Amino acid sequence: MKAPLSLIACSLLLAFQAGSATAAEWSDTYIGYRYGTQFAEPFGATDITKSIVNFGHASGYKYGTNFLNIDLLISDSKDPSAPNSSSGAQEFYAVYRNTLDLSKVLAKDLGWGPFRSYGITAGFDANSKVDAGYNSKKRMLVLGPTVMFNVPGFLNVSVLELWESNAPYNKYTGVQTSRYSYDPHPMLTAAWGIPFSVGPVALSFEGFANYIAAKGKNEFGVGTAPETNIDAQLMYDVAPITGLAKNTLRVGVEYQFWKNKFGNNHHGAAGEGAFAKTPMVRAEYHF
User: Fold this and answer.
1) Which end of the chain has fewer CB atoms surrounding its CB within 10 Å, N or C?
2) Rounded mean pLDDT, 29-40
3) Which CATH number do you get for residue 15?
């Protein structure tokens, strides 16, 4: 059964309007930068250097939370922008999530034991990449329940249904593929931000982990594989050594483990480029 896209779109619009129309109870906005030399792409290289500039925003309002992240990913020539080009690919990737907290919606504390509350999460992913071989134009809607754990900071675990489509363009062959919808498929996902200290050193363990089920056949008739994407970082607040306000400037290290990237089986034609193991350095300026 195909996704009820109109229903999902309405849900996303209502969630966005709810978050926008209500004054924020708290917000955190930042510009970040990360850098690594061991990125990988399916059907391509495994030692790509990328610089990533991102804009991030998280906020809480009367009924829940909003999260938005937009990445600009700039590759070196090992991930070329066109056939025989010496310039690297460029990509925009956006993620938006709105979580309605049922304790807030119902004005009743639903927490017990290890659970802080429960919610419903809706959102979307969208990307646009300019590269030699695929030129992804991914569009994805997500919807499902969330459990919020009672920890310092936050730990949210969701089971989301995904409705994904793409419309790639191959510059090698000049073939434009009409927008193709994958089978609806689930994702088990966790997101966390856990502050802690080692003596006087203020640190935070943050990240996300996604397990995404296979999504049927791709637009070329090839079966997809289950996908695991874990991205974790250890961040240090440099306020004590810079004199800046707390959590204004943070630096740290990050590691991404991405198996069967975008559903491409790394044991198949996509090769080891579909299995990225990428250490990075990261910096964020919050305002």
Assistant:
1) N
2) 98
3) 2.40.230.20
Q: Provide the domain limits for residue 15.
A: 5-286
Identity (one letter) of the amino acid at 185?
H
For the stretch 69-80, pLDDT in tens is 999 999 999 999
Q: Computed from CA positions of residues 83, 87, 88, 93, in that sequence, does the dihedral angle turn out positive or negative?
A: negative
Give the CB-side neighbour count of residue 236, counting CA atoms within 13 A. 12
Cα distances from 193 to residues 70, 154, 213, in angstroms, run 18, 5, 25
Which uninterrupted H or E stretch holds 210?
A: strand 201-212
Q: Check residue 274 and give its pLDDT.
A: 97
Mean pLDDT of 171-181: 94
Question: By mean pLDDT, which of 11-25, 45-59, 81-95, 169-183 is the weakest?
Answer: 11-25
Q: How many domains does the chain have?
A: 1
**For tokens 């994702």, what's the residue?**
187
Question: DSSP letters along 67-126, please?
Answer: EEEEEEEEE-TTSBSSTT-SSBPEEEEEEEEEEEEHHHHTTS---BTTEEEEEEEEEEEE
Residue 285 binned pLDDT confidence (cut-offs 50, 70, 90): very high
Element (H, E) at 30: strand 26-39
Taking the C-alpha atoms of residue 175 and residue 115, their distance in angstroms, rounded to an integer, is: 50
Closest CA to 233 of 189, 261, 191: 191
